[in-house]
Amino acid sequence: MAKTLYDKIWDAHVVHEADDGTCLLYIDRHLVHEVTSPQAFEGLRLNNRTVRAPEKTIAVPDHNVPTTLDRANGIENPESKIQVDALDKNAKDFGIHYYPVSDVRQGIVHIVGPEQGWTLPGMTVVCGDSHTATHGAFGSLAHGIGTSEVEHVLATQTLIQKKSKNMKVEITGHLRPGVTAKDITMAVIGATGTAGGTGYVIEYCGSAIEDLSMEGRMTVCNMAIEGGARAGLIAPDEKTFAYCMGRPHAPKGAAWEAALTYWKTLKTDEGAHFDKVLTIKGEDIAPLVTWGTSPEDVLPITATVPSPDDYTGGKVEAVRRSLAYMGLTPGQKLSDVAIDTVFIGSCTNGRIEDLREVAAIMKGKKVKDGLRAMVVPGSGLVRAQAEEEGIADILKDAGFEWRMAGCSMCLAMNPDQLAPEERCVSTSNRNFEGRQGRGGRTHLASPAMAAAAAITGRLTDVRELG
Ligand SMILES: CC(C)[C@H](C(=O)O)[C@@H](O)C(=O)O
Ligand code: SF4
Fold first, then answer.
1. Ligand 1 pocket mutation, candidates 63, 84, 134, criterion most atoms within 8 A of CB
2. pLDDT tens digits, residue range 329-387?
3. 436: CB partners within 8 A, 6+ apart
4. How far is the CA of 280 from the centre of ligand 1 (A)?
5. How far is residue 310's CA from residue 324's CA, in Å, rounded to a whole number?
6. Domains of the chain, earliest start first
7. Residues in the ligand 2 pocket, defined by CB under 6 Å
8. pTM of the model
9. Tens-digit pLDDT profile for residues 430-451
């Protein structure tokens, strides 16, 4: 029977299938961060268990770490400090791979995994973090798990799962200038809503997806979870193989050749069945921004703020509340909305190509007077590369703060936070109430759009900058 890519990876990892269809899946890579792992390690201790496959378990602190240059002095917030200290100790006690804050390879777990060659095609990858979907860009089955599952995977290297349905999201044609991977993924959520992917694993395909670099593909898969999907994935191709080759933990020599032969089989067969299909023309996607407090609240930058009257059902009240929270008025042009802050970073858009894109726009330009603008590389290695390429200097000259790696202002778990009513254009993936700080107002956008906003001090169509 013709199989989808998801079917193939699933079948290759089933250890046991119960009568009701519940499966025990083998897990190839377990990524761990400080927020969702302390109780899991504690559970192992209490039961006198060890980590089943320490060589497949990789930990890095990211959510709670400060991103200021003086962070070697330690973490001030007691709760954050406890979590990071616990990970330091757990990594040592259980003998798993670890990138501490002091290591140049430290960064956001979803950036470190691919960068170090831990994430490879055909694998099952889990992490106690919803944005694990990012790793699906390599043609791996990657998704978030809860803390009790983290303990289960640590102890057994397996996970109890029920199979999801197959959904295909095809982006045909090609993107227009000024439109990026971030706009693709936001357009998909705009079309399906935050529950459109519930119960599905999405395979993204089509020429506009093939056109993307690995980094762009990671941006697309990263937000699969915001559309409700269990995971998002993209069939590996020559770009995938080239990205993986030579990474520290990628196979070498004969093992590489054998892996490559297998990886080339990782694509959906002709005629395989998808339970749901969404097709979007690449040419129809415009640079997008969010106006509300859900990632589905997306509009082209050329649009105006919607009115609750434009909606029906439960969304009417939700829109009213969103607009009040966001301090926006129906009918207002999005491009007239003045901003206070620009945040460039996160596991959605904190990779080197994102920073290159911002630098290309900022070169010779300045961040608008009075604006707070921050670039937080996704890993220490991204930071080092950006410094080597002269990107850091361009960004600093333009008026951006140049930070150390971490989740930073993507979520308010560390000192980088918005003040109440502070309005931010952010390259991250969530715009929920209070996500970037209590009362903070988030507009999600691509790095290019964030750079454009940094120059003008308002939501701005990057295509206008010329
Ligand atoms: C803290 C963590 C569990 C959470 C997640 O699961 O995604 C965070 O990374 C986020 O982006 O909200
Ligand atoms: S960068 Fe943001 S989305 Fe990504 S793992 Fe960190 S908090 Fe979650």
1. 63
2. 999 999 999 999 999 999 999 999 999 999 999 999 999 999 999 999 999 999 999 99
3. 343, 409, 410, 411, 412, 417, 418, 424, 426, 428, 442
4. 28
5. 16
6. 5-163 (3.30.499.10), 165-236+268-284 (3.40.1060.10), 289-465 (3.30.499.10)
7. 62-63, 108, 110, 129, 131, 346-347, 407, 410-411, 428-429
8. 0.98
9. 999 999 999 999 999 999 999 9
